[in-house]
Amino acid sequence: MKTILTEQQISLTIKRLAHQVLENHLDLADTVIIGMQPRGVYVSDKIVEELRSNLPEKQVNYGILDITFYRDDVRREIKVPNKTDINFSIENKKVILIDDVLYTGRTIRAALDALLDFGRPAKVELCVLIDRRFSRELPIQPDYAGKVIDALISQKVKVLWKEKDAATEVIITE
Amino acid sequence: MTLSTPHLLGIKDLLPSDIRLILDTAKQFKDVLQRPVKKVPSLRDVTIVNLFFENSTRTRISFELAEKRLSADVLNFTAAASSVKKGETMLDTVNNILSMKVDMVVLRHSASGAPHFLAKHIPAAIVNAGDGINEHPTQALLDALSIEEATGGLEGKKIAIIGDIMHSRVALSNIYLLSKMGTEVTVAGPPTLIPKYIKEALGVNVTYDIKEALQWCDVANVLRIQLERQNQPLFSSLREYNLAYGISRKLLESLKKQIVIMHPGPINRGVELDSDVADGNESIILQQVENGVAVRMAVLYLLSQAPTLKGGES
After folding, report:
1. Which residues of B touch A68 (CB under 8 A)?
2. E strands, chain B, where?
3. Which of A45, A86, B130, B212 lies deepest, with the highest CB count within 10 Å?
4. Pairwise CA distance, residues A124 & B298, whole Å
5. CATH (residue range A2-173)
6. Would an 8 Å CB–CB cutoff place A63 in contact with chain B?
7. Which residues of chain B have pLDDT under 50?
8. Pairing mode, strands A94-102 and A123-132
9. Cβ of residue A81 closer than 8 Å to a chain B Cβ
10. Do A70 and B32 touch (CB under 8 A)?
């Protein structure tokens, strides 16, 4: 087991990601943030917190999306769905999808399908805390990446949060 | 986490954790049904046949809609318009349909135990949509979801099941489910419509006084008088039944509290329920119908991984 990011590094990375989002979207007028269930929500919660503290006057539209019913391997292993909560329209909005680790790209493929059931966004961008490049199975790339790492297929990359796990850190295990 | 059973034959075989899983999954499907696109692609490679050997409106439409909302391919079969009329057995009918590569079977039959029989003989996931006077598991599940929404939970709540307990598969499935989830159950109705040893066999309270039951309960689940299953007179007339056991506005107002009224449908208006009660504020009958689609989506979704239809690595 090796630690890739410590708690302090994660918090700095999240601040950077939030600022990169602001750089491209300024006051978030036509932009909505969507966190991916289950574990992307920990990242999106913190990014949205940072965005809101930078834009105290603005309302930041923030929803969460569960893709269980849209997975391409749904029937190989039935998973228990989580809550989806998008209480605003995404029609013609710029959507920023947030997840913790981008690996094969299949989750994001499913998320794009799920998003389209809520409307037709003007644009969709992808923001991830960890990008495991060279392990993609679909042509999907992030627009904002906290840290890019090269890991073997046999290795596992986990983002842990002290709200749920023992401590906040990103680890790689064999 | 998955269900402990490859079929849904009855509530009797389910664990409390199975019931919880189905209800929680149904809540997510209920959200799906509020979206602009009320459909998910989960079962797009699954073919489901609805085999209805007995009449049904609500249950058949509800299952069909649930299947379509999950993107499954749907075959509808009603016995009245089929070779069953020419003397074909149920097993032959089903095997013929299965040889056309069907993955799941939703079965309604007037013989108790018909789905259990099928489950032993065919390699598909079976969902019981009502078998004779035995069980109607999806109805009990949607009733449970409706009770949870109306009262905030199942545990410790008091439910009265009123009317034709004897011939009701809805009553039996409800009693199994509610007992497993820690809900208190009282059955009420005329002595001729309540099985004699139900208290000893199923651990429910029994009363023949409808007002007492209503005064005690949080939710009253009122059942239909099933004349088609009664082959001897069990009460003298529908009018007399209504006067003694029907629920009227006046009766509800004589209670010192608000209760919730449920009915699995179809209602005999003016028999077990008066119209102003069926359409009143305390009635959640139409919410039950709405919940039916979500619950059936959950059941079909959770059963779609039965080993017999595991896709992928073969």
Report:
1. 28
2. 47-52, 73-78, 104-109, 125-131, 158-162, 184-188, 205-207, 219-222, 260-262
3. B130
4. 30
5. 3.40.50.2020
6. no
7. 308-314
8. parallel
9. yes
10. no
CATH topology (fold) of B11-135+292-309 = Rossmann fold (3.40.50)
Give the mutation candidate from A64, A65, A75, A84 for the B interface (greatest B CB count, under 10 A): A75
B268-291 confidence digits (pLDDT tens)? 999 999 999 999 999 999 999 999
- Cβ-Cβ contacts under 8 Å, A37 against chain B: none
Question: Which residues of chain B are within 8 Å of residue A83 when distances are taken between CB atoms?
Answer: 28, 31
Tokens of B64: 């069909």
Domain extents in chain A: 2-173
A 22-51 near B (Cβ less than 8 A): none
Q: Is the ipTM beyond the 0.85 threshold?
A: no
| pLDDT tens for each residue of A12-36 | 999 999 999 999 998 888 999 999 9
* pTM of the predicted model as reported, rounded to 2 decimal places: 0.89
Which CATH class for the B137-289 domain?
alpha beta
Query: Is residue A132 a contact partner of residue A117, using CB atoms and an 8 Å limit?
Result: no
Q: Among A64, A74, A90, which would you mutate to test the B interface (most chain B Cβ atoms within 10 Å of its Cβ)? A: A74
Range(s) within chain B of domains with CATH label 3.40.50.1370: 11-135+292-309, 137-289
